[in-house]
Amino acid sequence: MKGVAPILATVTLLATVPLITSSNVVLNFLVMALLIALVGQGWNLLGGYGGQYSFGHAAFFGTGAYVTAVLQMQYGVNAWMGFVIGIAAGAVVGALTGAVSFRSGLKGSYFALITLAFAEVLRIIASVTPITGAGVGTLIKLDLRPEAFQFQSRVPFYWIILAMVGISMILMRLIEDSRFGAYLVAVRENEDAARALGVDATRVKLGAMTISAAIAAAGGCFYAQYFLFIDAGIAYGPWISIEALLAPIIGGIGTVFGPLLGALVVKTLGELAKLMTGGAPGLDLVIYGGVLIVVVAFAPRGIAGIVSDMRRRFYRTPPPGENGRG
Amino acid sequence: MSRQSLNVSRRRFLQSTALGAAAAAGVLQAPAVLRAQGAAVKVGVLHPVSGALSYSGQQGRIGAQLAIEEINAAGGIKSMGGAKIEAVLGDAQSTPDGGNAEVEKMNGAGVAAIVGGYASGICLAASQTAARYDLPYIVDVGVVDSIVSRGLKNTFRFGPGFGVIAKTALDNLVTINDQANKAAKTVMIVHEDSAFGAGLAKLLNTQLPERGFQVLETIPHPTPTRDFNNVVLKIKAQNPDLVIPANYYNEYVLLARTMQQQRVRPKGIYSVLGGAASSYKFVKEFPEAAQYIMDCNHWFDPKNPKALALKKKIEDKGEFYTYEVYMNYSCILLLADAIERAASADRAKIIAALENSTFTGHMMPYGPTKFVNGQNQGAAPVNTQVIGNDIQVIFPAAVASAKPVFPMPPV
Amino acid sequence: MLSSVILIPAVLNGLMTGAVYALIALGLTLIYGVLHIINFAHGALLTAAMFAAFFAHQWLGLDPYIAAIGLTPIFFGLGYGLQRFIIGPAAHGEDRNILLVTLGLAVVIENALLYAFRADTRTINLPYAFNVIEVGSAFLAVPRVIAFVVVIAVAIALWLIMRWTDTGKAIRAVAKEKLGAELSGIDVAHIYAVTFGLGTACLAIAACLLLPTYYVNPTAGNAFVLIAFTIVVLGGMGSVTGALIGGLFVGVVESMSGLYLGESLGQIGIFVMFILVLLFRPSGLLGERT
Question: pTM above the 0.80 mark?
Answer without folding.
Answer: yes
